[in-house]
Amino acid sequence: MKPAAFAYRRATSVAEAVAWLGEDPDAKVIAGGQSLIPLMNFRLSRPDSLIDIMHIEGLTDVQVRGDKLHLGTLLRHEALSQHETVLRTCPVLAEAAGNVGHWAIRNRGTLGGSLAHADPASELPAACVALGATFHLASTQGTRHVAARDFYLGFLTTAMEPGELLVGVEVPLHSEVRYGFSEIARRPGDFALAGAFVELSSQQQGAVTWFGIGGGPERRPVVLTADRADRARVWREALQSVEMLDEDAYRIQAAMTVAERAYDQAVGRNC
Amino acid sequence: MSTTTTSQTMSISLRVNGEERTLPVEPRWSLADVLRRELGLTGTHIGCEQGVCGACTVLVDGTPQRSCLMFAVQAQGCELTTIEGVTPERGLSALQQAFSKEHALQCGFCTPAMVLTATALLAQNPHPSEAEVREALSGNICRCTGYQSIVEAVMSAAKEA
Fold first, then answer.
1. What is the ipTM of this complex?
2. What digits encode the pLDDT tens for the residues B88-126?
3. Is residue B54 left, alpha or beta, with left meaning phi > 0 and alpha meaning psi from -120 to 50?
4. Which of A2, A110, A136, A270 is deepest in the core (most CB within 10 A)?
5. Positions of chain B with pLDDT lower than 50, given as ranges
6. C-beta atoms of B71 and A34 within 8 A
7. What's the whole-model pTM score?
8. What are the phi and psi torsion angles at B156 (to 5°)?
């Protein structure tokens, strides 16, 4: 199908975009459009007005400042997955970005778009929850900071207020924490049937963050041992507190499998 | 929706297959529709209009992107390459010849996008492994060939280059 008619404006600065959003809180922001345009083509979304933010300069930066990685939200997934600084300082994030959609989608979709859209099967919101990232939300009132762990409220729902624009992501770099990532999809690039990030802050202390199994990223602190059967019990127990998309035995099995694979990767990784 | 947005027309300038084009578009027109209807470049095929099938893939600034998931107004200032842009005036490109030789097409609906995606892959990675070819093409659906011959065509074009 074809989208309904809409008015289109191209912002060239954050100040301009948030001023327009302030005037017209029902306007939708478009960046890469890889989630929004399918919804518009099906007329599931019929915004009266679109504000294109792709021409704002300075939102594709990648910088390490102190012990934090700062990412601009207009970074394309492909750029994030191959950026030398990201690969060196936060390889699990680069790996997750490389698993977003297919090549053509990664060439156009943006970090901010994926984070704000909050699809429960998407990799990057869960990565930011696992990594303890902080989001910078700009509006005409200024910029506020929200922890990724407080940002996701459920299926396609976030803590963003009308008039806000996601302009930056700050990822703390903890050299002592090891991360692993795994996902299962029917084909490479398809939506995940289940995916997981595992963090290990010591031999036993850690957390698992699942995606694709519930309404959003699901992070659970866990105590892990070197015994595989014991870990299976830990994953199963953690999953009991997740409101699953379905009670399908297959999805639970898939969630346990990706957690175990992510754990194995974390154990073998130094950062 | 309580109000009806009246159609707005905007002028865009972009390069298509090396040629500067300036034309008026409505914001709601997809790049795929504009390429086909306004510019007459019907080699870009439209399948699902939701980003799943890959048939409308074109090269935007050298990288494969879905022209059904991009409004033409967003292509302002972009460099576009469609299948017409990689096809010689006479005959076929080496990659297209490989598609022919390896029987990498049957109905041909997915072929322009397959060729463009493979063109971008080979430009970036002239000697890809089979796994890399499969990964690059994984966003393009073919319902005829079973993919084997498409992968073989790309591998053989890479080998002969």
1. 0.94
2. 999 999 999 999 999 999 999 999 999 999 999 999 999
3. left
4. A110
5. 1-3
6. no
7. 0.95
8. -70, -35
Query: Which residue of A2, A38, A102 is in closest CB contact with B139?
Result: A102
Selection from B158, B157, B136 nearest residue B147 by Cα: B136
Q: For the structural domain made of A178-267, what CATH number should be given?
A: 3.30.390.50
d(CA A131, CA A148): 9
Which residue of chain B comes nearest to A48, CA vs CA? B5
Residue A8, CA distances (Å) to A29, A96, A156, A158, B118 in order: 10, 32, 24, 24, 33
Which tokens hold the place of A74?
């207009």
Which of B6, B49, B76 is the closest to A1 by Cβ? B49
* CA terminus-to-terminus distance, chain B: 55
What residues does each domain of chain A span?
7-52, 62-172, 178-267
For residue A231, give the 3-state DSSP assignment: helix
Tell whether A102 is within 8 A of chain B (Cβ).
yes
Chain A residues closer than 8 Å to B1 by CB: 4, 46, 48
Closest to A42 (Cβ–Cβ): which among B50, B73, B76?
B50
Low-confidence ranges of chain A (pLDDT < 70): 269-271
Residues of B in CB contact (< 8 Å) with A are: 1, 3-8, 10, 26-28, 30, 33, 49-51, 54, 57, 60, 63-66, 68-71, 73-74, 76, 117, 135-136, 138-139
pLDDT digits (tens, 9 = 90+) for A193-242: 999 999 999 878 999 999 999 999 999 999 999 899 999 999 999 999 99
